[in-house]
Structure formats: C-alpha cells, structure tokens
Write a structure and sequence with these properties.
disordered N terminus; 19 helices; 38% helix; mainly alpha
Length: 553
Amino acid sequence: MTRNITTAFIAGCMLLTSSCTKDILGKKPKDSISELDVWKDMSLVSNYATYFYSTLQSGYSRNFYLCEATDDAIAALDNDPYTIVPLTTDASWTPVNAPFNDYYERLYRNIRKANDFLERIDAVPGDADQRKQLKAEIRFFRAYYYAELINYFSDDPVTAARILPSGAVRDAEKAWGVVLLDKTQVFGEDDLSVPRSTKGACIDFVVKELHEAATAFAQLPASYTKDAGRLTQGAALGLKVRVLLYAGRFKDAAAAAREVMSLNRYQLYPDYKTLFTVKNNQECIISVQHNNIALERAHTLDKSVAPGSMSGQNAMCPTQNLVDEYEMTDGKLPAQSPLYNANDPYTGRDKRFYATIAYDGSSYRGRMLQLSEGGFDIVNSGAFKPRTRYVMRKGINESFNFLGDASLGSDQNWQLLRYAEILLNYAEAQNEDAGPDNSVYETVNAIRRRAGQPALSAGLSQENMRAAIRHERRIEFAFEDQRFWDLRRWHIAHLPAAKEIYGTIIRKSADGATAYSRQTVQSRYFELKNYCFPIPNADVLSNRRMEQNTLWK
C-alpha cells in the first residue's frame, strides 16, 4: 500500500509542473515528501488529489484512436496488434490477451487508491470545506472508474431476441456487473476473493456516488478563475446522465439531463469548427487538460492525422460510410436530396462536414489536397496514404508546425463531456420514455441550428425520431469516442452496415471531369460476444469467486 500511494503521489507531482495555462494540473509540489508527511498536511493531500485528474481518459493521448474500431474511421496501417486490429479484423484473442486487459488492472488500481484516500483524509488536519471538496472529487473519480468498468467489462449475454427497439437488452441489469470495492482491502483481514455484483447494483452505486458528489459540489462556484478543468457540480450530474442513458434507464436519464440543463451554466458554443480548439469554453463540462510541452501533457493529434505527404501518419482516416451520413443543406441525405451532384459530391453539405473532414480539392494545412489517383497526396504519402481518400480535420490546429521544435506538441484539450451530449442524451432518453414530444424536438433542433441545418420534420413517430437522434449523434460526435459506445449499447455493431468499411476512388480524366466510385476498404468481424470484453484471465484465476462473462466462457 505504501508503495502505491507514494508512486501515485510522485506521479501526481510530475503532472503538476506546467509552463502554460494555470489549470488543475498546474500546481507546484514540495520537494522530498514522504507518505507520512502527505497525510499530515491538507495542502499536500490536495496536491496528491491531482493525480486522479491525470487518470481521466484522453482520446488524444492514448496510443490508439477508438474511432478506428467503428464504421467512422480506419487506421492508415493495420499495425496495432494490441487494440485496433483485434477489435476489427483479428478475432483470435482470448481472455488471456484481450484488448483492455491492462485498462482493467489500471482501473482497479485507481479504485484502491481512491478508497485509501477517502479512508485517510478525515484524519488530516485542515480546512473542513476543503476536505469536503476533495472527498467529493475523489468520489467522482471512483464513480468514473466504475462507469468505465461497467462499459467495458459488465456481462452482456445478448441474443437477437432480447434486443429491444431502444437497443437495450431485456433484463440486462440482472447480468453480472463488476466487483465493487468501496473500502480498502487489508491482507489477512479481508477476503480478497470478492464476487461480482449485478450490473444493476453497480449502476446504483455509481449513480449514488455521483449524486452525492454533486450535492457536495453544489457549494462550489459555477466556474473558477484558476484551476481550469477542475470538477464541478455539472461534471458529476453530467456523467450521471451518461451512465443512466447507457443503462437504459430512460426516465431517470431524462430527469438527470433536465437537472443539468436547469443549472444554466452551459450553452452550445456558437462555432462548431473552433469548439474543439478554444479551451474550456462554455460548452465544456469535463475536459482533460493538455499543454504543448512534449514531456508534460502535449499529444500528437495534429501529426497523427495528417497524411504521409505532410509527414503525418493519417490516423482516424474518415470512411465513406461516415461521409454519406452528412446531410445536404436541405436536411436530406445525399441519396435523397435534389441538391446532391454525384460529380461534385462535397458541395452543399452540413457545415459540420467541412469542420470534420478534409477531401480532394479542399484546403488543408495551407494547401489544396490532391487525393485522386496519381495525386500528390496519394503518390507521396508512402505507407501513410489516405486509404479512404479522406483526412480527419476535426479539432486540429492547422497552423501548428509539428515538424518544428521537438520539445513542443499539440495542446488541444480532450472534451470528455460537453453540453451538446447532455442535449442529445436528453432527447434520446425522453423519446424512449415518452415519445417525441416538443422537448425532444427542441433539444435536437438546437444542435441542428448551430450547424445551419433545418429543423426536423414535425410529426415523427418514436421510431423515426430514434433514427434521427442516432443520426445526429453520429454527425455531432464524430471522432469523439461516442460512436464506439453507441454501436454497442444500441446493439447494432454486429449488423453488416457497421462491418463493411468503404472509401472512394477518385479519377480525373484529361478533359477535367472527375469520377468517384465507392470501394470496399476493409471487411470486419463482430460477434455477439464482442458487445463486452472478457474479464482478464489472470483475475479469474486469482479470484476464486470470479465469474467470466457468459459468452466468453
């Protein structure tokens, strides 16, 4: 235990140094601090608490991009044998070497650290209000870790007959969840073999933790003049909305979303294109803070997504599947709109298309992309050519020179939860619970209004509204990890539409005409057992009361 706490404290201190904006990870540690010293000084405990902020998952700083395992994107190279390849084309893995086995272990390590923190902090002398705030923050993190465990590792004994129209699975909450540990386990005193709780019990625990954390947070200001990125009441309530929606508790999810909306602290940022580069704007509820120092909290987004012709790696290559989902400005899909011209397919689209995807003939990092056969960006990209003939643009800093000073990197924050999600979570939950009432239309149309798209047609059935909301989520949250979970919780990832990945081939003739032809880029597998990940084999062997997930036995 001593080693874990000390290591965690040191890791937290390393993350505290920053020469950029002053945020929650920007405080200065003291030197030569022992573990005993930490638990005698509230300021040191506060510094140690910043370690937990470093555990929030950033889609920019992992060594893979989760969207590449969805029908929205594909990697430039099939060379990630640990995550993306097993999730898409190689079904040979088992509970011994499954993707995210290491994440399972990290989550439980952090839960143990959170439990230890919560058990020790009451004995630390200091300000009572600060203690209350820190306890609420750590309870949030513990709930976040359990929410992640539920998403990845709770059992999903799905069959086609049990999938409801909403995508939820009948009696899902009776299935195994994960092992709940709400206190520090002591070797020799506690039974270290703990059975899994039901998924319903796990969700109840997470919701209770977030609710109580939000109650404590209510005494905090709505925003901070320093410590950008610090958790607020809205963060706890917002994560609660997501947990309830993912669980299929639609009435409760809608009520929780209304609670966040009634705070009047958040609003849609007016410009979708710059939403992801303007840090800590009014739409952001939870964000992972980054800076531009390579050895601190920088990441490599800008280089990763650029084509090989620009010395990039062409990660998150957008698919034709996704491109086809962007409406024309009349609100209709290309296949249904009289505005669509197959010989000029990118004109007249939803504004979010231009903010998200770069295409042949568009300007990208200061020059025009040439993605037709024989074009500069195809011929000169080497192994990192755009496989689908598209390049990911969303959130990048096109003026940042990633080939310059090696000590600098990309610094865009990862928006873990933003207000647009609260609105669309509400719309989905309310539609599933009560049908497409006026409030459902209002929240979806607010998102569409920002994009310059016409309002939804009146009189939609619940089924048609469901399809409209799912479409809106795919467009609004492209490349934000949402699609990975939406495919799974709606139980549509095993359907052919999600497994056949398309790009386009572009040919230019001597007379200047351009022809576009759809082409299969990759055929993927997805079996029913893949709706959840197996419990790592090592944990099954070490815990005599552990049950493996149903379809992974």
